[in-house]
Amino acid sequence: MCGIIGYTGTSNALPKMMKGLSVLEYRGYDSVGVAAQRGKETEIMKCKGRIGALEEKLRDHPIEGSHCAIGHTRWATHGGPSDENAHPHRAGEVILVHNGIIENYKELRAELADKGVAFLSETDTEVAAALINDCYAVSRDPIKAIRSATARMKGAFAFGILFDGHVGEVYVIRRGSPLILARGADGYYLASDMTALLPFTREYCAMKENEIARLAPDGVRIYLSDQTEVAPDWKTTTMTPESAQKGGYDHFMLKEIHEQPQAVVKSVSPRVGKTGLPDFSSDGIEADFWRGVKSIQIVACGSAMHAGLVGIRLIEDLAKVPTTVHIASEYRYHPPIMPDGTLVVVISQSGETADTLAALRYAKENGVPTLAIVNAVETTIAREADRRIYTYAGPEIAVATTKGYCTQASVLWMIAAAIAHATGRISDEKAREVVQSLLCDVPAAMEQMLSREDRYRKIARGLIDHEHVFYIGRGVDYALSMEAALKLKEISYIHCEAYAAGELKHGTISLIEPGTPVLAISTEKDLFDKTESNIREVRSRGAQVTLICRSDIPVHQETADELISLPVSSDAATVFSALLAIQCIAYETASLLGCDIDRPRNLAKSVTVE
Ligand code: F6R
Question: Which of 5, 42, 387, 549 could make an S-S bridge to 522, C-beta 3.0–4.6 Å?
Answer without folding.
Answer: 549
